[in-house]
TrEMBL record:
Taxonomic lineage from the root: Bacteria, Pseudomonadati, Bacteroidota, Sphingobacteriia, Sphingobacteriales
Protein name: Enoyl-CoA hydratase
Species name: Pedobacter rhizosphaerae
CDD domains in the record: crotonase-like
Keyword ATP-binding: no
Family of the protein in this entry: Belongs to the enoyl-CoA hydratase/isomerase family.
UniProt keywords, alphabetically: Lyase
MF-aspect GO terms: hydro-lyase activity
Pfam families, alphabetized: ECH_1
Length: 259
């Protein structure tokens, strides 16, 4: 995998993706979005990959938003297309992946950058990270799912305040309102993400996928309870369920085979 705007590598079943436009604070231009869409497909299709860690190059920014310079002369129709395309191919594609994406927020996560982090399943922030949705300062609103995902994560009151004031919050404030799962020193960011994925990697992969699908269904499907019931039932038909129970009874570690 060779990309212009991403650095990618796979190690110990983890795909590491670094958005690499440091001079533009890793802003998401069209090419970067196209490459992200490709890498998401790769992550989903490759058995070797069990989880993804997404971060930004350098120590200043995770992603400072959509690339403002690219859409300065857009029409309404082009704006709609930008949002629809980005949502479908990148932001929703991450959320709907049944492999966990962990956002390692190493600095500014603003606008489309915070939207990218919010599309991920788990967010870890470096202690100096700052987050916000500043779109209304530009005469815009969030377009990559921000109005929806921020509301889901922190509730309507906090979401409206953050979006219409456009104010940035610190990692500490973000953790307090449930926007990030953990705060760590910058140097420990990737290690913390690896630690979380190391637990997931030991669990039954089909059950992990089914659980993620059911949780996401709570916001994206009309009846998440029904999705859970069906996914729960399917688990009983897997060899990994039999192995998990046998290992418990025999007091040993399970060996899951993703069947
Ligand atoms: N798009 C394009 N370029 C960007 C950018 C962005 N979102 N954010 C930063 N850059 C560029 C700057 O233009 C600058 O480039 P030059 O050196 O060529 O001038 C470089 O990155 C460094 O940025 P600053 O000089 O501004 O750095 P700073 O330390 O003074 O400020 C900052 C940092 C507060 C993050 C500031 O860069 C900033 O406010 N960036 C824009 C944040 C923003 O508004 N994001 C929302 C974008 S709209 C969106 O995302 C829409 C959507 O939902 C789909």
């Amino acid at each position: 995998m060779a990309y212009q705007n991403l650095i990618t590598t796979v190690k110990d079943n983890i795909l590491y993706v670094t958005i690499n436009r440091e001079k533009a604070l890793n802003a998401l231009n069209k090419d970067t979005l196209t490459e992200l869409a490709e890498v998401i497909v790769y992550a989903n299709e490759t058995d070797e990959v069990l989880g993804v860690i997404l971060t930004g190059a350098g120590e200043k920014a995770f992603v400072a938003g959509a690339d403002i310079k690219e859409f300065s002369d857009y029409t309404g129709k082009q704006g709609e297309e930008l949002a629809r395309n980005g949502q479908e191919k990148v932001f929703n594609a991450i959320e709907n992946s049944t492999k966990p994406f962990v956002a390692a927020i190493n600095g500014f996560a603003l606008g489309g950058g915070l939207e990218l982090a919010m599309a991920c399943h788990i967010r870890i922030a470096a202690d100096q990270a700052k987050m916000g949705l500043p779109e209304v300062t530009l005469g815009l609103i969030p377009g990559y799912g921000g109005t929806q995902r921020l509301t889901q994560l922190v509730g309507k009151g906090k979401a409206i305040e953050l979006i219409i004031t456009a104010n940035m919050i610190t990692a500490v404030e973000a953790e307090k309102i449930g926007l990030v799962n953990h705060i760590v020193p910058q140097a420990d960011l990737v290690a913390k993400a690896e630690e979380i994925l190391s637990f997931v990697k030991q669990r039954a992969p089909l059950a992990v996928a089914a659980a993620m699908k059911a949780v996401v269904a709570s916001v994206n499907e009309p009846d998440g309870y029904q999705v859970e019931i069906e996914a729960f039932g399917k688990c009983f038909e897997t060899a990994d369920f039999k192995e998990g129970v046998a290992a418990f009874v025999e007091k040993r570690k399970p060996v899951f085979v993703k069947k």
